[in-house]
Design a protein that fits this description.
Elements (H helix, E strand, L loop, with lengths): L8 H5 L4 E3 L9 E5 L1 H6 L9 H8 L11 E3 L3 E3 L2 E3 L7 E8 L5 E7 L14 E2 H16 L6 E13 L3 E11 L5 H9 L3 H15 L9 H23 L1 E2 L21 E2 L23 H21 L4 H34 L9 H17 L4 H12 L4 H4 L5 H20 L5 H11 L7 H12 L4 H10 L10 H4 L4 H4 L9
Antiparallel strand pairs: 1-3, 2-9, 4-5, 6-7, 7-10, 8-10, 9-10, 11-12
């Protein structure tokens, strides 16, 4: 068996923050997916993980030497309601590896059976939702968006009972860490300030080591997390991604996207788009994601206040509250700046100053208003704008019913591009190339994802494998992948829902 060079700092340094546990054994493990490129990043021998050996390992029947499986404790706000104890109800952290670039990476199971945190659930997962994690996670990675990634998926030979009986599977997930806002909330709810400090110091050492020992390190940690989340959510928004369950236990301290349950990519542009079957009020709609990120950060700030105050007196507490509030209040500006940076790439603008911010923001807002008014596909609208940068307007105009409104906007955009060129921009060809690097041709179209997962559930992995191959090259317009670039028919988009898979 290939060697996993584990160095398990969480288990070693944070006793009492987890429960040691073993994955359930399964009757008939079979490897469905192995991410050989990711295995190489982790310093693993992919050839040794194929076949029965990998199936047994990734299903949980035979753990690699050095693994210390643990179920992590955390709390969380779920759709605004606080649960003081959630934890890994169907997941186990096997341990940590130092990858080839010197980064510490978590290796974790999802769907490996009941734990003490299962809250009555079976702790299992089905083939479809676990392969969804592969498709969406690898798509996000190819789009350049920080994400947890799937190392493997193994079928278990068991039947998982949801609305229907489904074939079971275990996902092996890789992350910078599984530290969450909810991890901090767990110890605040228990009133364990010493453990909160221990957790915060561990987090700083792992994710922001330059802050270690600094007098205001807990404030600086909050600022660092806010900055990472501002960039992450801006990236989501610029590709039309909707997470679906932005609970505090699904917001990572590392700034990675985690938990691809009821997630999806928006097709026709509409900020009110919701895909999650359990989001009845639209709390986690596409357009609400920046506001929810700020709300979640406020919950993190609450957990850090006892550490930031440093003394239990009124003046210290007031100072800490004022500092934390300033960070939360600054988040919309951080997000807006990150969003506009990405949007300028999508507009093909190179030369920009703070004086251009308001004009460029208005230009984008008016573009999005056009997409909304005419139900234009978000991905193809941006992509075909790159064709217009080269003077080929027809592919873009074909997306719009009211072409006069589009032409008016294009005139304004071209005037802005001319000013950009006068300030040192490189001209039409490089502008179009930059725009194509910022606006993908392919996203995981919901109907294609569902079709691939349905086939895989029935035992046919070929559609999943073909779709995955295409999604790993989202910026390249390849004729063999043209089918995956087509939006779903309007009737397929209407009422489309995704589910959490639990």
């Amino acid at each position: 068996m290939t060697r996993f060079a584990f160095d398990n700092s969480y288990a070693r340094e944070l006793p009492g923050f987890y429960t040691a546990w073993q994955p359930a054994t399964v009757p008939a493990p079979r490897l469905l997916f192995l991410n050989e490129a990711l295995a190489a990043e982790l310093g693993l021998d992919a050839s040794a993980l194929r076949g029965e050996t990998g199936a047994s390992l990734f299903a949980g029947n035979a753990l690699p030497e050095g693994a210390e499986p643990i179920a992590q404790a955390y709390a969380g706000h779920q759709f605004g309601g606080f649960s003081p104890q959630l934890g890994d109800g169907r997941a186990l952290l096997l341990g940590e590896l130092i990858d080839r670039d010197g980064r510490r990476r978590d290796i974790a199971f999802k769907g490996s059976g009941r734990t003490p945190f299962s809250r009555g659930g079976d702790g299992k997962a089905a083939v479809g939702p676990m392969l969804r994690e592969v498709l969406i996670g690898e798509a996000m990675h190819a789009l350049g968006i920080p994400s947890t990634r799937a190392l493997a998926v193994a079928a278990t030979g068991e039947t998982v009972r949801r609305e229907l009986p489904l074939p079971g599977a275990v996902l092996t997930r890789v992350a910078e860490s599984h530290l969450r806002v909810g991890t901090f909330q767990y110890f605040l709810a228990k009133g364990e300030v010493d453990r909160l400090r221990q957790l915060a110091d561990y987090t700083i050492a792992r994710h922001d080591p330059a802050l270690a020992g600094a007098p205001d390190r807990y404030l600086a940690l909050l600022q660092a997390v806010a900055q990472r989340q501002a960039v992450l959510i801006a990236q989501w928004m610029n590709v039309g991604f909707i997470h679906g369950v932005m609970n505090t236990d699904n917001m990572t301290i590392s700034g990675e996207t985690i938990d691809y349950g009821p997630c999806a990519f928006m097709e026709a542009y509409d900020p009110q788009t919701v895909f999650s079957s359990i989001d009845h009020g639209g709390r986690y709609a596409y357009g609400n994601q920046p506001h929810i990120a700020r709300w979640n950060l406020a919950r993190l700030a609450e957990t850090l206040l006892p550490l930031m105050a440093e003394a239990d007196d009124e003046s210290a507490i007031q100072r800490a509250v004022a500092q934390a509030t300033a960070v939360i209040d600054a988040f919309p500006g951080l997000f807006a700046a990150a969003l506009l940076r990405g949007q300028r790439g999508k507009l093909g603008l190179f030369a920009a100053s703070a004086a251009d911010d308001a004009q460029d923001t208005t230009l984008v807002d008016d573009w999005l208003a056009l997409l909304l008014a005419q139900s234009v596909d978000f991905t193809l609208g941006w992509r075909r704008l790159a064709d217009a940068a080269e003077g080929r307007d027809a592919p873009l105009r074909d997306l719009f019913a009211d072409r006069a409104a589009l032409d008016t906007w294009l005139t304004r955009w071209r005037e802005r591009c001319t000013r950009d060129d006068a300030a040192g921009g490189p001209g039409a060809a490089e502008r179009a190339a930059r725009m194509r690097r910022a606006s993908p041709w392919l996203i995981p179209r919901n109907h294609r994802v569902e079709a691939a997962l349905a086939a895989a559930t029935d035992g046919d992995l070929a559609p999943f494998e073909r779709l995955l191959e295409a999604l790993r090259q989202p910026f390249d317009e390849r004729p063999e992948h043209a089918l995956y670039a087509e939006p779903a028919p309007a009737e397929a988009q209407a009422g489309y829902q995704t589910f959490c898979g639990t």
